[in-house]
Amino acid sequence: MNLEAVIGLEIHVQLNTKTKTFCSCSTGFGAVPNTHTCPVCLGLPGALPVFNRDVLKKGVMAGLALNCTICSYSVFARKNYFYPDLPKAYQISQFEHPLNRAGFVRIKDERGKERSIGITRAHLEEDAGKLVHDDDPKGPSFIDLNRCGMPLLEIVTEPDLRTPDEAYRFLVAVKEILQYTEVSECSMEKGELRVDVNVSLRETGEDAFGVKQEVKNLNSFANVKRALEYEIKRQSRLIRSGERLTQQTRLFDVSKNATVQMRTKESAHDYRYFPDPDLVPIELSPQEIDGIRETLPELPEERRDRIKAQYGLTDYDVEVLCSSHKIARYFEDSARGYKRPKKIANWIHTEVMRALNETGKDIESFAVTPERLRELFEIMDGGVISGKLAKAVFDEMAASGETAAEVVERKGMRQLSDREEIVDVVEAVIRDHAAVTDEYRSGKKKAFGFLVGQVMKRTGGKANPKIVNELLKEKLSNQPGVEDH
């Protein structure tokens, strides 16, 4: 029996508005529990919601970026269920009339073949609160209602995905698109992006779906992949042994790398959706939609193509640089007016990314601004410092916040380019390493590198490498029997 997986995703993205969906409470992260609340998001009797226009704009922008059809008429509905962190006992969402329909995102498989993954809908809704459980399983649970009413966009895919790797690639692509449009930071650590997965198995070639299992509240793409891998193996084992699957909602236990049953799955009618009587339908004119479309920034694939052509970079370069809109912007700002952009791209791949990882900084708060990075390259090209010293200068810039010129001056790192001063060191090295010089004479060209290293060592790494090489060649070639290097 050949089985294939059928996978669909529900992605919950927090839109980065300053205030909540239906009230003026702050959406700021990390506040003292239950301080960003009001009668509206607490669901107190008589409190009426007022829709945040910025939520609508960002919802439309996300829909356009995801190639959706923007609906001119959409309706908020009440999704009724009881849970401790849902004060109203219903969630304001969209059901029959969502804001966005019928979109798609293109991804590439491991062989580079492109395919489109359909998006059924991308609708607006408010978030619920958060339960905080005590470390002791028998201890109390607490409720933080700061998250109640946070603006969410729920993106529901078609069941087009077939492997955990495809699901992972799709999520990466969606996250990139949403970050490029700047409708959300998509920080999973802050709960701004959460994923539910639906997966079933069927015999390869069949059209009918198998029995769906939902795994909820996955908070990392790695866990999405791991949960899907486990579920595919679990369901395959049960099907092959002849057991009957029932539709379930499950959770992923990270410590056990396994899913566990949470409850049997409710169907849509269990939520008793009906239009919210306190909120009027949303009506958008074609002119309003086109006006938002005009504000769309350059999207990831467009930027990759442009940067590759404009700066003469490789596919690998643009994949690294454009994986984040902030890194891409940093590169372009650094390369502006500089004649060797590939050199800057390589430096960002290595030194900048290393420094960010070591300091835990975001590129926007990184001490080495694009202008300062470009200045570092300009003084390196001008012979003020060597490439080796440039790395030390860069590390000092990242630590102190100084410019390259300030670091060079304070640390006395200016490159030594005085030929008369360097020639004395070259002659001393040749004299002190006669055995290595003899090896060079006998044709062992690697000996030359040793001699260069000794000159650099004696000058504290400050000697101009080009002049060192020229003088060594000159002095060694003047020795009888020594070939020019």
Q: What features would you describe in this structure?
A:
With 485 residues, this protein is an alpha+beta fold. The chain has three domains: 3-289, no CATH class; 300-411, no CATH class; 419-477, Arc Repressor Mutant, subunit A (Orthogonal Bundle). Helices cover 39% and strands 20% of the residues. The chain has 15 helices and 16 strands. It has helices at residues 53-65, 164-181, 221-240, 286-293, 300-311, 315-321, 325-335, 341-359, 370-381, 387-400, 404-411, 419-432, 434-441, 446-458, 465-477, and strands at residues 3-14, 69-70, 73-74, 76-80, 90-94, 100-108, 114-126, 130-133, 141-144, 151-157, 193-203, 213-218, 248-253, 258-264, 274-275, 282-283. A nine-stranded mixed beta sheet has the order 2-6-7-10-1-11-12-13-14. α12 packs across α15 (465-477). The termini are far apart. Residues 480-485 have low confidence and may be disordered.
